[in-house]
Amino acid sequence: MLFFSTYFVSNAQVRSLFNAKTQARTLTERWELDTTATRGTFLVTPYKPIFILPVHWSSSPNEAPFSGNADPDFVAPEGTNYNNIEAKFQLSFKTKILQSIFWGHGDLWVAYTQKSHWQLYNKSLSRPFREINYEPEIILNLPVRFNLLGFNARMVGVAFNHESNGKGNPFSRGWNRIIFHAGFERENWSVMLRPWLRLRAEKDENPDISEYLGRGDLNVVYTKNENVFSLQGSHNLNFGSKTRGNVTISWSYPIQGNLKGYFRVSQGYGETLIDYNHEQTTVGIGVSLIEWL
Description:
This protein has four helices and 13 strands. By secondary structure, the protein is mostly beta strands. The longest helix is centred in the N-terminal third of the chain and has 14 residues, at about 1-15.
């Protein structure tokens, strides 16, 4: 009996990722910011988009990655002959582990995101996974209510974020951050602002990573007739010749039920952690199951 109860509860949680009735459409619904949206703890829900891109093209595959650390341990061998076209997919979910903390005004979440780049069409290299990035985090979220420049503030919070690629030297890359966030809404628009502080490591695999991946990002989402348009940009807060970062634009459109077509374009640094200091333009097309909203 316990087995069957656990099975059905788990299935209900997994279905919540893909059920149109539970798919969040606002920040309040996504983050359960008031009593009308509260669904309790330990329920698996979407976090970042979930998508599959069978075709993901790069203008400049990173065939000879290098680190800003001059230590001999981080000197890579000769480059690998990667294809310009590979497959990419992303999984992302979160769950609330503590509810109504800090005098009933805060929730504590844990989240996990995984991005995978697969050289699916590279037969000569036996179709390897070129790069997998793992990103667990702990998020403290607080609901707020005030107006700013015509937008309604809905939440603020802070997160401890770890991201790494799980590789050994010389290809090991990773960083830890304290990320602050603020979420705003206005009609069909949603805005998330995230400045962060990078935590230094004792043996730094990529000491200059903030100069390329940035010191904060901005995510803007617009929805119309079930189409979801998003723009995400990061910036290192330097200007002139040292300005670096990344801009990603995506568009999803309904196909059938929860299945949507997905189109994504990015330009700049940090398509993956191994590419943190490598500039390229990428274009991907495929399908998505979960969007930002």
